[in-house]
Write a structure and sequence with these properties.
By secondary structure, the protein is an alpha+beta fold. The two termini are 18 Å apart.
Length: 118
């Protein structure tokens, strides 16, 4: 595995607020994070979106918001692609709604699997 670092894209405050409002209208929730992944199915490529809202109930953190199969996924992916056209959409992307930052989703191997000294 390479030491690849993700590229970061940042929206200005007004565009961040507008995108947050659009996501809230689409999902019915104030979202904290959104992950968009392009997948390949037998009938062609599809967008898979994971939407997380702030959970104000103990133990606090984030909870996954159910999305309508197909429609919500395509709409949210399209909305983020329009906001961040320079991003590499062939790779999974994480959008942090509260700060307006989009980053490539990177999965890091644990040190024990990389062979790093413990």
């Amino acid at each position: 595995m390479s030491a690849h670092t993700s590229v970061e894209y940042v929206l200005d405050e007004s565009r961040r607020r507008a995108l947050s409002d659009d996501l809230r209208r689409m999902t019915g929730y104030l979202l904290a994070e959104v992950r968009v992944t392009r997948t390949q199915w037998q009938d062609g490529p599809r967008w898979v979106v994971l939407a997380l809202a702030v959970d104000e109930q103990p133990p606090f953190g984030h909870r996954e918001i159910p999305l309508v199969e197909g429609d919500n996924h395509r709409q949210i992916a399209g909305l983020l692609q329009a906001a961040f056209p320079a991003a590499d959409w062939d790779r999974a992307q994480d959008y942090h709604v509260t700060d307006g930052i989009l980053r490539e989703h990177l999965v890091r191997l644990p040190a024990s699997l990389r062979g790093d000294a413990l």
